[in-house]
Amino acid sequence: xxxxxxxxxxxxxxxxxxxxxxxxxxxxxxxxxxxxxxxxxxxxxxxxxxxxxxxxxxxxxxxxxxxxxxxxxxxxxxxxxxxxxxxxxxxxxxxxxxxxxxxxxxxxxxxxxxxxxxxxxxxxxxxxxxxxxxxxxxxxxxxxxxxxxxxxxxxxxxxxxxxxxxxxxxxxxxxxxxxxxxxxxxxxxxxxxxxxxxxxxxxxxxxxxxxxxxxxxxxxxxxxxxxxxxxxxxxxxxxxxxxxxxxxxxxxxxxxxxxxxxxxxxxxxxxxxxxxxxxxxxxxxxxxxxxxxxxxxxxxxxxxxxxxxxxxxxxxxx
Length: 318
Known about the structure:
Low-confidence stretches: 20-25
Radius of gyration: 20 Å
CATH architecture: Beta Barrel
Oligomer: single chain
Mean pLDDT: 86
Distance between the termini: 50 Å
Number of helices: 3
Structural class: mainly beta
Number of domains: 1
Helix content: under 10%
């Protein structure tokens, strides 16, 4: 039991460094870690934007508005102790993702506090999602074409010593409204977007081998996004997840053979103010390299770095 207790403390501290804040009386899992490299560089503000494969993590309704297939992956090592990674596929209407969090070589102690080998701790999550414009449903053709609804199903597996291993799932609905092209204060916009996502609306918590069960916390996020030709802005307000604000500016650098360079900046406040920044470089048609930095003032750490790769296909199978 001492080993399990120390593991929970270590996991909580590492997730705290990644996520910014944790909630009492709820399971601390990889769901607390900001997903994706591009959204992280924008302060975790993506509920209103939701315009690539990361829509699956922030607002599955955005899948209904994708016009191309998106594939993204990332791998991050934190403090030399833990690893976090993901692979996500976003299609028009459908999304699939796999995420993991791994913490290895934890010293195990017996009841007399003697060394008794080592063990590991890991989370593995499978996420399935779908999005549909509401006017595509029978009897709802009168609804504006820009209004979409999404549904996300997440399966979580926690693996460690038998008493601390377990699994759970959650079902999360979301909505997104896209205005389409419009002119605002003399600025031509691609769209204004408004998104709402409910996290863990239906869940039975995580059941562990010890018989204990911890609930996944109910969360809600409201996102406002402005999409222009060369830049995007997003503001997210969340229950438990706090305040997030981020932006992205895109430009071409033909002399450097860079099809597109995206500069990103963000801030968030989850009890402690933090900032993020990053960039994305489209090296050739479809392929992009993404980088994000996030500060961690709560634990007095210098910050973490994340590298990701994404590919945007010139078609969508649906």
